[in-house]
Structure formats: structure tokens, C-alpha cells
Specification:
The strands form four sheets. Strands 5-2-1-6-7-9-10 form a seven-stranded mixed β-sheet. Strands 12, 13, 14, 15, 16 and 17 form a six-stranded antiparallel β-sheet that branches. Strands 3-4 form a two-stranded antiparallel ribbon. By secondary structure, the chain is α/β, with parallel strands linked by helices. The protein is 26% helix and 29% strand. Strand 12 and strand 13 form a beta hairpin. The chain folds into two domains: 199 residues, Formyl transferase, N-terminal domain (Rossmann fold), CATH 3.40.50.170; 92 residues, Methionyl-tRNA Fmet Formyltransferase, Chain A, domain 2, CATH 3.10.25.10. Helix 5 packs antiparallel against helix 7. The protein is built from eight helices and 17 strands. The longest helix has 21 residues.
């Protein structure tokens, strides 16, 4: 079968790699986002999937249209006469003209209809869900509203953060893609119940701002969901790079140093305490939390700002 693949980040790359390894599937075109300037020096950087393709020296055309709404882009994709268009975290809405070229199958990293939108994995963790998963669905003009074709899921373990789940769910999505494509004609699409749908927004840098006025448990939840980007930071700009839950006990005052231990510093929250292990001061390199406290000459009872 001939497949046009659309995707941009590492999640998509994992799925694409599985398709290349399957002798029954021929990837005839890869569509991805344009190269973008990254970092303070604004270095023009290719999307993850493009960088991987070039590194592997795979002989497949890479197409980076500014918009799929242009006639040029639509004719280009149609010219490959695909049996399927597979979409995984591409980053653009597909117009009806493209949807009509071939069955378009999206691999969305949530158990739909929950967490439609841009940040399904982070939103799953922020909601303290018991399970995470991926859904293959037929695409339509709505955002993640199409009929569902299949699911794979896993139980969220205490050690799971966004980085781990991205990698794990990408592997599940790769397996689900192959199963969906090979069994497409025998599948019975299941209409989503929109009444049960939830939507998640794109994660922004400011979402990483926390306060010790929150509970220790809620801070830990945000830490798992927002690592490595945007990460957690407090109002002063101090980044909390590595932390863990210390206890759930009520505290009279939040934001103060309760204990100084060899592995880090215990900070009180509105409820409970967290153990800070690694910090990053503004415009400085990351350092052990204990070294930071010593450098600031802070003691037990002092407030961390």
C-alpha cells in the first residue's frame, strides 16, 4: 500500500520508522513543517522527522509546504496517488481537499474523545488520569472529532512524566498504525460521543509558573506533566529542574526551608513539602540545590524566592 505520511516531532518519527520497516507499506512522500529558527541565535533548524530522514539517508521526498490550503500543495500530495494519508502531530489542520484524496488516519495521543487538541499527553498527566493511550481515527474537518478505528493504552506509573509517556505512546502509536492500515477494510469506525469530549490547549512557557502556595502534590503533578518543557519556575525566575514529593503533612507557612539534607532542600508548600534537588538560577547554569542554598547563605526557616 502507498502511504503519504504527515508529521513533525519525534512522536511522528517513531511511527514513520515503523512504517519504513514494514515491507507491506511503501511511504511515498513525507510532509512536515517548514524549518524554523530556534534558540537565542535563531538557528534555522529542521523538524525532528526531517533531520531523522536525512540522517538515515532514506530515499523519500520531503515536502514542507507553508500551508496545505495552497493548490500547489494539494496537487503535489494527490500526484502520489496514496492509498492512505497517515497523520501524527503534523501541526496543521487538513483542508477538505486533502481529506478527499485518500482515507486520512490520525494517531492522536489520548483516549478519545478525551483531550482533543494540542497537548493530550501533558493534559492526561495534569488531570492525574489512571490510563494514557493512543487512538487511530478517520480524520474530518473538525479537530480530533473523527470516527475512531482503534486504541492502545497503558497504566500510568508513578515514574511516568511527559518525556517517558511521549516515547512510550509513540511506540504504541507505531504498532497501532500498522494494525489499522492492514485491517482497515474490516474495521467498523466508532463515532465519538461529543458530550464526553474534553479539549486541551497548546502548552505555553507561562504554564510552568508555580507557587509554593500550591500543594506539594499539585506541584509534583505539574513537574511530571511539564518536563522537560517548559519546566517549572517560581516568580523570581528560579527554575526547579529536579524535585520529588517529600510528605503530605499540613504546613503553617509555605515557601520556607524546612530541612537541609545531603540530597537537596525540603521546602514547605500550602500542603506538604517537596524535596528540591537541582535548581537553575536566572542566567546561571544548573546547580545542586544544596550548593545554591549555601551560596545564598540561606538557613532553615528562611524563605526561598
Amino acid at each position: 500500500m502507498r502511504v503519504v505520511f504527515m508529521g513533525t516531532p519525534s512522536y511522528a518519527t517513531t511511527i514513520l520508522e515503523a512504517l519504513f520497516k514494514d515491507t507491506d507499506i511503501e511511504v511515498v512522500l513525507v510532509v512536515t513543517q517548514e524549518d524554523k529558527p530556534v534558540g537565542r541565535k535563531q538557528v534555522l533548524t529542521p523538524p525532528h522527522i526531517k533531520a531523522w530522514l536525512l540522517e538515515q539517508d532514506l530515499h523519500v521526498e520531503i515536502f514542507q509546504p507553508k500551508s496545505l490550503r495552497s493548490e500547489e500543495a494539494q496537487l503535489k500530495i494527490a500526484s502520489y496517488q496514496p492509498d492512505f494519508i497517515v497523520v501524527a502531530a503534523y501541526g496543521q489542520i487538513l483542508p477538505k481537499v486533502v481529506l478527499d484524496i485518500a482515507p486520512c488516519i490520525n494517531l492522536h495521543a489520548s483516549l478519545l474523545p478525551k483531550y482533543r487538541g494540542a497537548s493530550p499527553i501533558q493534559s492526561t498527566l495534569l488531570a492525574n488520569e489512571t490510563y494514557a493511550g493512543v487512538t487511530s481515527m478517520l480524520m474530518e474537518e473538525g479537530l480530533d472529532t473523527g470516527a475512531m478505528l482503534g486504541f492502545l493504552y497503558l497504566k500510568i506509573e508513578p515514574e511516568h512524566n511527559a518525556s517517558i509517556l511521549f516515547e512510550t505512546l509513540a511506540n504504541l502509536a507505531a504498532e497501532l498504525t500498522r494494525v489499522t492500515l492492514k485491517n482497515f477494510t474490516s474495521l467498523s469506525p466508532l463515532t465519538q460521543m461529543s458530550a464526553n469530549a474534553t479539549h486541551c490547549k497548546k502548552i505555553k512557557k507561562e504554564d510552568g509558573l508555580i507557587s509554593f502556595e500550591q500543594s506539594a502534590k499539585s506541584i509534583l503533578t505539574r513537574y511530571k506533566a511539564l518536563s522537560p518543557w517548559p519546566g517549572l519556575f517560581i516568580e523570581s525566575g528560579l527554575k526547579l529542574l529536579e524535585l520529588e514529593l517529600f510528605n503530605h503533612e499540613d504546613e503553617a507557612v509555605f515557601g520556607v526551608i524546612k530541612e537541609i539534607k545531603s540530597e537537596g532542600v525540603v521546602i514547605t508548600c500550602k500542603q506538604g513539602c517537596i524535596l528540591l534537588k537541582t535548581l537553575q538560577p536566572i542566567s546561571k547554569n544548573a546547580m545542586n540545590a544544596l550548593d545554591y542554598i549555601r551560596g545564598k547563605r540561606l538557613n532553615i526557616g528562611d524563605t526561598l524566592v
